[in-house]
Design goal:
alpha+beta, 7 strands
Length: 196
């Protein structure tokens, strides 16, 4: 059918709204042709591998969506193959909302953000969880001591890259330190020269 995320997300109601807005014609072209945006390429793998966090949405038995931030060291999400990614579920507040939701409905939506470069990758998939010690060991991260309670293996159904139009650049402390360190060194050098 074409663009797999459009196939899933563009319901009849969504298409009616696109028609009323005048955007339907361009989205209809996107939906035509061979299947696309359901096989991870090197571009998606590299982008995901550099992330230290993402957002994950699930839906509970009551129909309410639930969005949760997931974080860890850069690369804690692994692209296993062109249709699968996985990540360790580190011990947290022990509410188990996402985990509970996934026992009833295995569908998930993920947002991977790169704020400094104003880039985001959104993804839809289906999750299997595991607490098998052999699988948990595969996701252990050198030097990161958080306890892994289970793993999430996600079969990718579709993904899409979004435009940067409304993404506000944000920077981590590490990002800022790499820019500020040479300035601080130069200030120290000038102060030392001035005190002579």
């Amino acid at each position: 059918m074409g663009h797999k995320l459009a196939e899933i997300a563009f319901t009849d109601t969504v298409r009616q709204l696109q028609e009323a807005d005048g955007s339907r014609k361009s989205y209809a072209r996107m939906e035509a042709g061979a299947d696309s945006n359901n096989i991870l390429t090197d571009r998606e793998s590299a982008f995901i591998g550099m992330r230290d966090s993402f957002y994950m949405a699930t839906v509970g038995e009551t129909g309410w969506p639930y969005v949760q931030h997931r974080g860890g060291p850069a690369g804690f999400v692994s692209v296993i193959d062109s249709k699968t990614l996985g990540f360790p579920d580190f011990s947290g507040n022990r509410q188990f909302v996402s985990t509970g939701n996934l026992q009833v409905d295995d569908r998930v939506s993920l947002f991977f953000m790169d704020y400094p470069n104003r880039t985001r990758l959104k993804m839809l998939g289906r999750v299997n969880t595991s607490d098998d010690p052999a699988i948990l060991e595969r996701f252990a991260l050198d030097g990161y001591t958080a306890k892994i309670e289970r793993t999430f293996l996600i079969e990718v159904a579709a993904f899409d890259w979004n435009c940067p139009q409304h993404i506000t650049p944000r920077f981590t402390a590490e990002d800022l330190e790499s820019v500020v360190a040479p300035l601080q060194a130069r200030i120290a050098e000038l102060e030392a020269a001035q005190s002579l």
